[in-house]
Amino acid sequence: MVDVFKTLLGSKDLQPKKKVYMIQPSILYHTRTEGNCRTYLKGYFKVDSVHTPLDFRSKSRTFFEQLMKESEAVIGVTIEDMYVYPVWQDLEFARKVDKPLFTLRVVKELGGKSTNFQLLEGMVDFERLDWEETRLLYMEIQKKQLGIPLLFGRMPEY
């Protein structure tokens, strides 16, 4: 017997798409660094897509927990060898539900000219920031990107 859906859609279309979930500091949203992280992870894990919280705005925490459960792995991005609050919270959830989890360490050279990635298994012994410390880190990074770098055309750090 012929499977009508298989014939119409092709067998490849019926296969579930592989995906990973990347949680990152919000200061990286819509940056070159975010794009580089996605490209790196797609190639490393050989997946069809890399999902981030920004892809699904205004969704509930339950939605994101289900998305993490359905993903091949959960990857937390660190900057300056620190886990910002949302990143380590999601990695802790992934650990609780026994999902493979990784830390993507992003190291930018001064001036933001090149990015180096180091993918580490699990959560490493980096500092975990609370909400207030996360906010202060973001403010510190934003201050570096204002003023003289704008006048002289230096690329943003992240």
List how many beta strands DSSP finds. 7
CATH class: Alpha Beta
The outline comes out as globular
Number of helices: 7
End-to-end gap: 56 Å
Briefly say what this structure is.
The chain has seven helices and seven strands, in the order ααβαβαββαβββαα. It is an alpha/beta fold.
How would you portray this structure in words?
This protein is α/β, with parallel strands linked by helices and 158 residues long. The protein has one domain (16-152): 3-Layer(aba) Sandwich (Rossmann fold), CATH 3.40.50. It is 41% helix and 21% strand. The protein is built from 7 helices and 7 strands, in the order ααβαβαββαβββαα. It has helices at residues 4-9, 11-14, 32-45, 61-70, 85-96, 131-144, 148-152; strands at residues 19-23, 49-51, 74-79, 82-83, 101-108, 115-121, 127-128. Strands 2-1-3-5-6 form a 5-stranded mixed sheet, sandwiched between helices. The protein has a two-stranded parallel ribbon with strand order 4-7. Strand 5 and strand 6 form a beta hairpin. It is globular and about 50 Å long. The N and C termini lie far apart (56 Å).
Which key terms come to mind for this protein?
Rossmann fold, globular, five-stranded mixed beta sheet, 21% strand, alpha/beta, 158 residues, 7 strands
What is the element layout, followed by pairings?
Layout: H1 4-9, H2 11-14, E1 19-23, H3 32-45, E2 49-51, H4 61-70, E3 74-79, E4 82-83, H5 85-96, E5 101-108, E6 115-121, E7 127-128, H6 131-144, H7 148-152
Parallel strand pairs: 1-2, 1-3, 3-5, 4-7
Antiparallel strand pairs: 5-6
